[in-house]
Amino acid sequence: MKIYLIAVGNKMPAWVARAYQEYAKRMPRECSLQLLEINPAHRGKSSGTQRIKQEECKRIQAVIPKGATVIALDEHGKSWSTKQLSAQLAGWLQDGP
Q1: Which of 14, 24, 26, 70 is deepest in the core (most CB within 10 A)?
Q2: What is the gyration radius of the CA atoms in the chain, in angstroms?
């Protein structure tokens, strides 16, 4: 199974690379984790928040592989513990997404 971590931003801080490498190392050998960095939309004086979000959404959607199961991380979304995430990954590995 391939897992793509898609992040908006470029020139990520060093801690992001370290955290990504640590998570990639912890993945089961049946999983490969790949970080895809998407360039942020241009932010100018006349750039509205909604337009920026729409542009970045298009950029994210453009790199999602066809047929992929999409899991979006949201600060207001459902929280999973490490054990819950591990169990979900094991289920996907066994049964598919």
Answers
A1: 24
A2: 15
Residue 54 tokens, joined: 């729409």
Partners of 1 in the beta sheet? none
46 SS3 class = coil
Cα-to-chain-centroid distance, residue 65: 12
Q: What is the mean pLDDT of each run of 10 residues along the chain (97 residues)?
A: 88 88 87 89 83 93 91 84 87 82
Q: Which residues contact 88 (CB under 8 A, 6 or more apart)?
A: 80
Judge contact between 56 and 74, C-beta under 8 A: no
Give residue 69's pLDDT: 85
Amino acid at 4: Y
89 to 15, 27, 84, 92: CA distances (angstroms): 25, 10, 9, 5
